[in-house]
Amino acid sequence: MATVTNWIDHLSASEVQGAIYPGVGTEGILVLILFVIWIGWHVIAAKQESSEHAKLARRRPGSNDWKSNVTDG
Amino acid sequence: MTDELGALTTIFTEFYYWITVVLMFLIHVGFCMYEVGASRYKHHQHTLMKNTMLIPLVTVTWFLFGWWIYWAFPTGPGLAPSIMNESAALITDESLFSAKWYLPNSDLMAVNLGDHISGVFWAAFLLFSWTAASIVSGAVIERITTFAFGILAIAIGSVFWSIDAAWGWHFDGWMLKLLGYHDAYASGVIHAIAGGFALGILIVLGPRIGKFSSSGEPRNIGPRNPWLVTIGLFLIYTGFWGFYAACNIPIFNLGPEYGMEGVTYFTATNIYVTPTTLSGITMNFLMSLSGGLLAGYVIAKGDPFWTYSSGLAGVICASAGNDLYHPIQSLIIAMIGVVIAYKMHYWVERKFKIDDAVGAVAVHGYAGFAGLVICGFVLNGYPSSGYSVGAMWDGTTYAAINPLGMFIGALIMFFVLGMFPGWIIAKVLHGMGKLRIPREVELAGLDYDIMEAAKDDEKAVASASR
Fold this sequence. Notes:
The structure holds two protein chains of two kinds. By secondary structure, chain A is an all-alpha fold. Helices cover 52% and strands 0% of the residues of chain A. Chain A contains two helices and no strands. Chain A has helices at 7-11, 27-59. The model of chain A has no long low-confidence stretch (mean pLDDT 93). Chain B is mainly α. Chain B has one domain (4-455): Ammonium transporter fold. A three-stranded antiparallel beta sheet of chain B has the order 1-2-3. Chain B has a two-stranded parallel ribbon with strand order 4-5. In chain B, strand 2 (266-269) and strand 3 (275-276) form a beta hairpin. The model of chain B has no long low-confidence stretch (mean pLDDT 96). Classes of the chains: A mainly alpha, B mainly alpha. The A-B interface holds A 16-21, 24, 27-28, 30-31, 34-35, 37-38, 41-42, 45-46, 49-50, 52-57, 59-63, 65-66, 68-71, 73 and B 41-42, 57, 60-61, 63-64, 104-115, 145-147, 150-151, 434, 437-441, 443-445, 447-449, 451-452, 454-455, 458.
C-alpha cells in the first residue's frame, strides 16, 4: 500500500513521482466508494426526515405548544 | 521544485489561496448565524442543520463533478473555440488547463508533489459554491425539507454556478469572447445566479404560513435575534475580504502570457488574467460597503436588518467592476444597487406574494443583476481579456466590455442559469411531494420533538437526587 518507503530514494529519483498517497492506482475504487456514500446518505437521511415529519404531523401539536417545551437550563 | 525563486512564487501562491479559504469559511459561519437569527425559535435547530449540511453535500459533489464542469465547459460547448486547442468542444484533451486533470480519479486531485496549486484553487472555488448554496438557504427557511434543500444546494453549488463560472468567469469563457462579459468579483456568477435560483424555488415553494393576510397583505416576520443577525452579517463582510482576494491571481508575469516579446511585467490579476491591484480593490471594497450602508440606512429609515444587508448588497452591486472602478464610482454604484434591491424586494413581495425570508433574492439577485448592467456602461470599451481584442459575436477573439453584452450576461446569470433551473427542480421535488414540510410540522415547529425531549431531560435531571 505504501507509495513511498524511503524519502531519500524518492526525492533523488531522476523524475520525482508526484502522487504520494497510499494505494496510487486505486483512485477509481475510491471514487466509487465516495459515490455510494453520497447517494446512500441522501436515501437514509430522506427516510429519517420523512418518518420524523409523519410522526409529528400525526400528533398535531398546536402552533403555540412549543412554548411549554422551552427549557431554562 | 529546484529553482528557489520559482519555488517561492509557487508556495506563496499556494499559501495565499489557503488563507483566502480560511477567511471565506467565515462567510458560512456568518450565514448560519444570520439564518438562525432570522428564523423563529421553534425552527432554530433545523434551520442551522439545513445550512450546515450543505457543506459536506456540496463538497463531495464538487469533488466528484463540480470542479470538472468548470474546466470542461468554457466553450459552451459549441459556442466559441478555446484559445488552448481552438476547438469548441468540451475541453477534455491533453491541454494544460483541461478538465481531464480534474476528474475525481485524477492523481492531481490529491497530495501531489508536482502540483501545489490545484487543491487550494479547488478549495477556493468550493467556498464560492458553499456561498451560492447558502444564499439560497436563507430565502427558503422554516418550510423546505432538508432533503429537497440538499438536492437544490448541489444543483446550484456543484452544477449551475460551475457552468456559469466556466462561461463567464474563466480566461477562456465564451461569454467574454462573444459578449465582452466582465464580472471580476462575482456580481453575477455567484450573486445574481443564486438570487435567481432562490426566486425560482420560492415561486414553487410558497410563503410561510401567516406571511400574507387573507387579503394578500404581507406581514412582517422579522428577525428573532437581531444581535445574531448583526454578528452574522459582520462575519459575512469579513469573509468577503477572503472572497475578493480569492478572485485574484496574486502574482503573474503578463509579458510572456500575452506574447509580448522581451516584456516582463509582474502584477496581481483578476480571474481573467487582466491586471489589477489588491491595494485598489481593497479601497473599492470598503467604499462600496460604505455606499451600501449609507443608502440602506436612509432608504430603510434606520432599520438594522436592512442597513446591514444593504452593506452587503452595495459590495455585491459594485463587485463586477471593482477591479477597475474608482472608489467613488464604487460607492455611487453601491448606493444605486441598494435602492434597486430594496424597492424590488417589496414590489415583488406585494405583487407576486413571494416570501423571501431574509431578502436574499434582493440583496444577491437584484443587486447582482444591477451591478452587471451598470458595469457594462461604466467599463464600456475596456478589453474583457488581455489575449486578443475583437468584436462582439466574433468568438475567435475577445469582445470589449459593453452595455448590451453585460445586459445579456445578466439575463443569462439571473434567469437562464438561475431562476429557470431553480423553478424546474423545485417543480419536480414538489411533484414528488418532497419539497415542503407538512403543514402540521410547520405550525408546530420543526424543532418540536427536540424541544420536547429537552424538556423531559430537564425534568428528569431536576428531579434526580443522586
